């Protein structure tokens, strides 16, 4: 809560401030309010006016505002931390931002990452996966619960690491490359094809697991886009709270290492 001190007024200071701004007449009114001998025959309107003086209204309002601010800041902090509740620590968590996005992708909707292969598309994918690996240290690995047994090391110090999301993007990209294998694997051998099948089966399982883990609960309905169609088409106006991708990418780029960094081999460590 240290960052919120500027919004909060400690109770002793607040009371001292209130005492100093009371006029002599108001102090006298305060005393008389609790003097039963003097207030026995006081008119109700007079007591009410003493209770709601401009100074007291100011103090009441200030306290209400402070309580509202405390509640909002508490809720904001709780919402941010609850997004990672139950997850293993990661060095990027404190940098993550969120935003609201539309959830459903229509069949004919495309982006720079989809559609038939093109030079612009390949460049976009290359930039997307460029910060896949970053340098970490023993302290971060310990906090994340990683084992040091047979751990790969960088020649210039530290350890190579990646975020789970970049493994998932890698899998999506590999599926795309195989979908257009005539362009990306024109001379694929039988052995290479067998390896890709095994690799992509691993990717499908990784993606299945992460999709089921996040469990998208957006409601989809169905409409007759084409009255002559055999089946209606899915649609949805659902909104989701999504990670703001730039918050991950900017952090990753600030610590990235090359895709193929020089590594210390196990035999050289012996």
Distinctive features:
270 residues, mainly alpha, disordered N terminus
Summarize this, please?
Helices cover 51% and strands 10% of the residues. It has helices spanning 11-21, 24-33, 36-39, 44-51, 54-82, 119-129, 138-143, 164-179, 181-184, 190-214, 245-255, 266-269; strands spanning 98-102, 133-136, 153-154, 159-162, 221-223, 233-235, 239-243, 263-264.
The strand order across the widest sheet is 1-7
Shape: flat
The separation of the N and C termini measures 48 Å
Helix count, DSSP H or I runs of 4 or more residues:
12
| Sheet of most strands | 2 strands, antiparallel
Whole-angstrom Rg: 31 Å
Question: How would you spell out the order of helices and strands?
Answer: HHHHHEHEHEEHHHEEEHEH
Summing up helix and strand content along with how strands pair, one would put the structural category as mainly alpha
Q: What percentage of residues falls in helices of 4 or more residues?
A: 40-55%
User: How large a portion of the residues is in β-strands, by DSSP E?
Assistant: 5-15%
Describe the protein.
The protein has 270 residues and is mainly alpha-helical. 51% of the residues lie in helices and 10% in strands. Strands 1-7 form a two-stranded antiparallel sheet. A two-stranded antiparallel sheet has the order 2-4. A two-stranded antiparallel sheet has the order 3-8. The protein starts with 10 loop residues before the first helix and ends with a helix.
